[in-house]
Write the structure tokens for this entry.
Amino acid sequence: MAILPPMRPESLFPLFADISTLKGVGPRVAPLVEKLAGPIVRDVLFTPPQSLIRRTATTAALAQDGQVQTFVVTIDAHLPPQRSGQPWRIRGWDETGFVTLVWFKGHGPHLERQHPVGTRRAVSGKVERFGSEIQVAHPDYMLEAERIDEIPPIEPVYPATAGLPSRTFRKFALEALSRAQDLPEWQDSAWMAREGLPPWREAFERLHGPEGEIDLSPMSAARRRLAYDELLAHQLALAQRKAGKRAQPGPRIASGPLAEAAEKALPFRLTGAQVRALSEVRGDLARGERMSRLLQGDVGSGKTVVAMLAMADAAGAGFQSALMAPTEILARQHYETLAPPLEAQGLAVVLLTGRDKGAARAAKLQKLADGSAAVAVGTHALFQDDVAFQNLALTIIDEQHRFGVNERRRLQEKGEGVHLLAMSATPIPRTLELTVFGDLDVSRIDEKPPGRTPVATRAAPTPRVPEIVDRLRAAIEGGAQAFWICPLVSESEKVDLRAAEDRAADLRKMLGPRVGLVHGQMPAAEKDAVMQAFVDGEVGVLVATTVVEVGVNVPNASIMVIEHADRFGLAQLHQLRGRVGRGMRESSCVLLYDPPLSEVAQQRLDILRRSDDGFEIAEKDLELRGGGDPLGLKQSGFPAYRLADPVAHRDLIAVAADDARLILARDPALTSPRGEAVRTLQALFDWKPASGLNDAG
Ligand code: ADP
Ligand code: MG
């Protein structure tokens, strides 16, 4: 199936016009509108108000401090400032008393001309009451009394940008709305009726003309309608991309005796989840179409061995494969894991990192270029221009979110129709998976290898650090190793770095010299050296900013201390905790927090204490936090929705995905009347997902 680039129908032209075509958007204002909304009229239409102001009509006697209210007053006197710095004031009255209007930077004479003594004015603004005195500073409205109807009783408030008041933006929004035409309905009418959803244009009228707080809620019918439109447009784009990729040919790789022998030689048996994931990968590889698959699995779930066996399959079929990891130490660990079983099958494995120089590097490149090495493991060094493969057929990207789209692509382009297997340890709840990875096939390893001792997890207030250090000393003396995480919490990296350095110095005082420090600002080589010393057991306690998050395996490490645990996403804490509990020792994790702990923080830490399942934790975290970006998804390639809230509207995501599949299955070229309407929807949102994995392959 070909991907149809949605042609923009004429009905959308007004919405795709430049914002400068809106009345009042001149060269000074345009950049502000663009910053807030975007470059075209549609973007203004798509910018929802954040809150609303209710203006109640009142009198001087009944005015309430702090409320936004409307009065009708007769101008009684202008009171010019007596000294510089004083405001210009106008005294007005109604039947119940006086109201003073105040301008700190006003043009007195202008005000005097506009509102002469004796005229009646409708005035609206925020009331300040000082005893019996009522004051309104810089009224929002001041009109002839007859025009009081022009003061809206409910006024939506748009996100503010300096120099662009909400009320100005509102004018643009209303004009944008007036440019929106009725469009043919793309949603299923029966479904709309069942859900009580309004037509598209009506939904926008409600969005920009809320009649109450309920209309601002993501749960309102209008918001759900618009959210669904956006989700459907996105799911359609993803489904088309997925179909488009499927249609690309890829080398046909059948599983054979080589991989079978490699698997037999493993010191353990694959878990059920590994077997399942591997057979999904093999199904893809054998199909003759290019694979785009994500292998999701908690830290320690055993993704590497699945990758290794897929590489063995490729080698058995006469192809090369490459595994890329984000750091040198990880690449080396992978090499140490992968090389022995593969070499035992007679395959040559090359490790290529930034450390390789000169003749040694040239020799490695030669082996990749002439095909004598079947497998390459490495870092960014793998996709450099002078690296060539004889017949690369499979790339595996570990910790995929740590690579840019182009980096992954550069490696993939070193062969023809190269299969992609991306690996991720960020547990993403099933509901959200569809929005992040909708154009990939996903395999999950949702089971841990047997024999893992669960990590005993507890929370402790920071003042109890000395006690914890005492226990740590005993453990270290007994041969254990510990991570001590000082995560980045402040806006300033310098401040955070100092906190980590101070902690390391403290621990050295109390525990002796076997305390190491790694942080993000260290040169890579230095960082690797400290990490290596930790892996080798020379360092007993490794103080680190979050750099250890990436999957380094130190089986002897059994203690994890995390400072400021209350400020972190559960998924992230869970990943950090996954660094321990890999060996024979009883493992523990201490979550340090600054008391007092809020109730939600308490609940969150409780979840972590009770559960060891990354997916379950992520799902709970989502429920507890609601809204925003609770799982730090943005960095995982999460789409920037304008109208949909992936948490509040998560029930709609799966429906939209099903709907998209159904629409395309029935009418792949979108030529039916509904298909045409759907194309308008696509053109309206114009999804060009360009982030994260969506562009890989
Ligand atoms: P991750 O999914 O975090 O990348 P790894 O692939 O590094 O996990 O595996 C973690 C550890 O589990 C490794 O030491 C690996 O040898 C071991 N392992 C993997 N699969 C199994 C299994 N089926 N049974 C026992 N141990 C396993
Ligand atoms: Mg790993």
About this structure: Residues 268-271, 274, 297, 299-305, 425, 449, 551, 553 surround adenosine-5'-diphosphate (ligand 1) (CB under 6 Å). DSSP finds 22 helices and 22 strands in the chain.
